[in-house]
Amino acid sequence: MAMAVAPQHRESSSSGSLDKHLTDNGKYVRYTSEQVEALERVYAECPKPSSLRRQQLIRECPILANIEPKQIKVWFQNRRCREKQRKESSRLQTVNRKLTAMNKLLMEENDRLQKQVSQLVCENGFMQQQLQTAPAAADASCDSAVTTPPHSLRDANNPAGLLSIAEETLAEFLSKATGTAVDWVQMPGMKPGPDSVGIFAISQRCSGVAARACGLVSLEPPKLAEILKDRQSWFRDCRNLEVFTMFPAGNGGTIELLYSQIYAPTTLAPARDFWTLRYTTSLENGSLVVCERSLSGSGAGPNAAAAAQFVRAEMLPSGYLIRPCEGGGSIIHIVDHLNLQAWSVPEVLRPLYESSKAVAQKLTIMALRYVRQIAHETSGEVVYGLGRQPAVLRTFSQRLSRGFNDAINGFNDDGWSLMNSDGAEDVIIAVNTTKNLISANNPAQSLSFLGGILCAKASMLLQNVPPAVLVRFLREHRSEWADFSVDAYSAASLKAGSYAYPGMRSMRFTGSQIIMPLGHTIEQEELLEVIRLEGHSFAQEDAFVSRDIHLLQICSGIDENAVGACSELVFAPIDEMFPDDAPLLPSGFRVIPLESKTKDVQEALTTNRTLDLTSSLEVGLATNHASVDGSSCHLRSVLTIAFQFPFESNLQDNVATMARQYVRSVISSVQRVATAISPSGLNPALGPKLSAGSPEALTLAHWICQSYCYHLGAELLRSDSVGGDSVLKHLWHHPDAILCCSLEALPVFTFANQAGLDMLETTLVALQDITLDKIFDESGRKALFTDFAKLMQQGFACLPAGICMSTMGRNVSYEQAVAWKVLAAEDNTVHCIAFSFVNWSFL
């Protein structure tokens, strides 16, 4: 069929108003332009019409009366083939352009690296000569060659002086972006390639912290520059950006004087601000440059009352080099070089302010990802749920992040003030009586109140807890830390009954949460979703009325391989049919890794650490890893928690007491979870216990396999896999979902292999919170109830194909489920019930 397209295309292009198509018997059918037009209209509505639709088309269009239905069928087949070839050709051309540009970028990067190697060889030779001739005067310093000229000597108060500073800034920036002014090394875990976001590097030896990125973006240079200069739209930590002065540079460029403020990531450190010069100009080769650097002097700043909350940081020459690509799009180079004044923060936090990896993740990589996201949305390649436009969903994410940052920082000029402490300084209580959360379009549905907003926040240090694992656990298992009555209504409604969230009443939570995706970024480093918490009213008149709670939530940083990335879980209560301008009151968690100065933590820890039994599969290997974790490599991170509550003025003290107690309970729960998932919490000699009072994993694995063979007369594992310690390894990697539940009035799961955890979308830590009845649907529960007596009598039962449900609310189908009694080898008593779900898959 594809071969028929080529001659027909040549014929149609040369015949003008006629269109030829080759039929199955080898004859050409000629179509007039009117016939082709009629067929094209139908094709636009339905590319693959049914036989009835084609016959209807012949009846309705007299001009097609002389065409047989079979011939029309062939026309549509050829038309679809032509469309498919066109799309494939367009895709291949796009891929070819991308590969050509990427190849050019890699060759330039290779040339730069060769120059850097040559420079390092020369420096090394010079140092060796110096050491041999004058060892006493040798300079053992490892400072970079990057120097900042003393531009403060120039007059920054007139255009001529500013233009001179701008030109110097441009030269220094270009030497960093494409030259060897900084000793760049590849960002760990970010390998370049055709499918990668870009090429990322961090500084190895230089003053301050620096990161560099270069990549391809399918946007034109002017559009890219416009987006990146609007820093508040993509840099989540940018609180404010003001342009105080702007004037032409005389060479087609512009010079701007900027004052910007950057949120503090935790309650333990002050925020940063910058007074900078930004220079935008074009180069002779057609490239567009936006470069920026700090100016000396105090410059602009906040008022005296708020100045104490900021530390003036320094931006060394940084910016964007944007070059147009042949065939459209741009090649962009990004450099961020900062001095964040690490002296001004507690010593425990200084690694964060001295980490180039943190700057790369928060600023450099974020910029490149954002412009690529905009490019994908512009091309129509991104599809979102619930009928929301991409720009609206981006706004929701930005509002959640900004609201959470506002709560953590509590700036005075936003109306925040601290309440008196109860004597313990673990939880900070701040009050804002001026914040307005009224919805402009629908005031009746707004969070309007007379008192204000109260924020309870705290920060704590975590040891040996991977941030991505912790945040992923908090997201998937809300019942482990949340009090759902607090999600439903405030303490004021409980004590006085005079205030509650609109439409919410006292209720109980059923234990289920449904995650409904709204959208995600290209690499899925950030997820936007709606969480539905199922609940029912306590009131007798509303006993059968659903009182579900809905939360708008963003989750980011759950990739364990992202070195230096912080992990966040931020959420806010919303109405079920929330409008685009719905008022938001964000709360949540932020976990920031603090890299070790002695050793790269991410290289020492296992790359893909999960909450499973793999560490106990080989006892010797687990012992070695544990010794590394415990001695030379301490993964430290800072957890910041902030929860916001609305209140009426006469209930402020009550809400403050409730908020302080609630945050303390959340901290206690998070500490318990962190202990459970911490690698150092495992006994390296014995491996992890499945639960209190349970046998070791290896023993239970033997019991499961032996009982299966005893009851069903067949081997669960291959005969060569049941000896020694390998039985646990093979059971763990068995393709069928194998789970064990306790023999109680309300059976709960005590063990699952990897397939079982994947099917339930949970972890071993949270497995014991799942009861047997929760995973089966109604028919599955009936089948289990019917065969339960048979199971207890003969020792096993085979359940028919059915549907079960994961903890995330997703339906799972299985071809068969086998249940059998697991007997303890010592006394032959029934230890638990095992289930094997055969050929399971998500629907």
Automatic annotation (TrEMBL):
<feature type="region of interest" description="Disordered">
    <location>
        <begin position="1"/>
        <end position="23"/>
    </location>
</feature>
<comment type="similarity">
    <text>Belongs to the HD-ZIP homeobox family. Class III subfamily.</text>
</comment>
<feature type="compositionally biased region" description="Basic and acidic residues">
    <location>
        <begin position="8"/>
        <end position="23"/>
    </location>
</feature>
<keyword id="KW-0238">DNA-binding</keyword>
<feature type="domain" description="Homeobox">
    <location>
        <begin position="22"/>
        <end position="86"/>
    </location>
</feature>
<dbReference type="InterPro" id="IPR013978">
    <property type="entry name" value="MEKHLA"/>
</dbReference>
<dbReference type="InterPro" id="IPR023393">
    <property type="entry name" value="START-like_dom_sf"/>
</dbReference>
<feature type="domain" description="START">
    <location>
        <begin position="155"/>
        <end position="383"/>
    </location>
</feature>
<dbReference type="InterPro" id="IPR001356">
    <property type="entry name" value="HD"/>
</dbReference>
<protein>
    <submittedName>
        <fullName>HOMEOBOX-LEUCINE ZIPPER PROTEIN REVOLUTA</fullName>
    </submittedName>
</protein>
<keyword id="KW-0175">Coiled coil</keyword>
<dbReference type="InterPro" id="IPR002913">
    <property type="entry name" value="START_lipid-bd_dom"/>
</dbReference>
<dbReference type="InterPro" id="IPR044830">
    <property type="entry name" value="HD-Zip_III"/>
</dbReference>
<keyword id="KW-0371">Homeobox</keyword>
<dbReference type="GO" id="GO:0003700">
    <property type="term" value="F:DNA-binding transcription factor activity"/>
</dbReference>
<dbReference type="Pfam" id="PF08670">
    <property type="entry name" value="MEKHLA"/>
</dbReference>
<dbReference type="InterPro" id="IPR009057">
    <property type="entry name" value="Homeodomain-like_sf"/>
</dbReference>
<keyword id="KW-0805">Transcription regulation</keyword>
<dbReference type="GO" id="GO:0003677">
    <property type="term" value="F:DNA binding"/>
</dbReference>
<dbReference type="GO" id="GO:0030154">
    <property type="term" value="P:cell differentiation"/>
</dbReference>
<dbReference type="Pfam" id="PF01852">
    <property type="entry name" value="START"/>
</dbReference>
<dbReference type="GO" id="GO:0008289">
    <property type="term" value="F:lipid binding"/>
</dbReference>
<keyword id="KW-0539">Nucleus</keyword>
<keyword id="KW-0221">Differentiation</keyword>
<feature type="coiled-coil region">
    <location>
        <begin position="96"/>
        <end position="123"/>
    </location>
</feature>
<dbReference type="Pfam" id="PF00046">
    <property type="entry name" value="Homeodomain"/>
</dbReference>
<keyword id="KW-0804">Transcription</keyword>
<dbReference type="GO" id="GO:0005634">
    <property type="term" value="C:nucleus"/>
</dbReference>
<feature type="DNA-binding region" description="Homeobox">
    <location>
        <begin position="24"/>
        <end position="87"/>
    </location>
</feature>
